[in-house]
Amino acid sequence: MANRDDFINPNSSPVTVSDADSFLLDSSQIGSASGSFQNEGFLSGADGAAAAADAEFGFSRPDFRQTPLVGTVDFYERHVFLCYKNPQVWPPRIEAAEFDRLPRLLAAALTARKNDVKKQTRLTICEGHDGTETSNGDVLIFPDMIRYRRLTHFDVDTFVEEVLVKDGEWLPGNPEALTGWYIFVCCHGSRDRRCGVCGPAIVSRLLEEIESNGLQGKVSVSPCSHIGGHKFAGNVIIYGRSTHKEVSGHWYGYVTPDDVPQLLEQHVAKGEIVDWLWRGQMGLSEDEQKASQQHRLSINGGTDMDRGTINSNDVGISTCGSQLEGTGCCQANGNISCCQTTQLPVDADNFNLNQENAEFTTEKKSSFKRQISRSSSGKGARPRKVCLMPTWYESWEREDTYAVLAVVGAAISVAYAFNCYRQLK
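Request: output the structure for the sequence above.
Response:
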């Protein structure tokens, strides 16, 4: 379960401040994601030191993928991101830091108005860079999908009153509509070394995939501060509109750089939840998260949550996700098993990030397919075996059988009716 003590007065207040530094990084700069970790990270330095850090805190650590994920997201209805500085300078408790007035005052104002805020609200800090699209003081709000520019410590009380208490608009700000997808990765190394080691490697791989597949302007990725559940590092949150045009926020845990192409191809491009990495989502309680996953499993016939990927839109494709070294092949759909390493299918024509029917060129489609199978350049990444189950074939076979049975049944009915007709004459 995500750390419930990471919240201020979780039982009495609709305002949630994740562990005093539950602040997410800048997702506002769609397509121009934060560059803090583009060429650097907490694993920089000698190869030996990096390997040692990975073994203790990274993807090779002993506790990696040892705890169930589903139902580890505390209930909340709204996520507020304050863009402010960067992970390298964030203290462990940034909203309580003496010299960081803006996050400290915003967190205090939310706590003071906790009884007046109608929606369970989570506050997270995101990275801000003055002089770029996302600046210090910008505020992103989900599921509203809006951004307010340049909040200052002088405006905090008015902003909280008008926007978060009254659910109105902060008139000096004039909210801007956000489009596309926003991916946040916890990189708060001063709070927990696991997030500091795993997060930057995931951000780097996301930036690489976005650039190589021409997704700038469609997908934004940003490092963020503590969001709860250090032991699940790498922690990832994805916000965007579903195939039903509803804004949802899905949390993933135990993510490695090798899992990044799968998250982009399945969750962002197709709207399919990657259940074996899924922690939960905005707007659902712990029990509802577990029930939601169980429902998807029952629809798709999946049982192996360590390796299976579930299609939230009921598409008949199952995949075996990342496998740890030394584990056996996956098995699903009865006795059909797979042991080969293969690529995930990419329906690039449906990569509808901004609900504008964005299409890839043939070259980009081929590039994206190649990216799916490419191993991560980050250290400590684990090999992944992915397999496709022939559920489409089984579905076709069942439909064909049903059609034959229907024809035979119709013929028998006609013959019986004709026989009765003859007897009546």
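The chain has eight helices and 15 strands.
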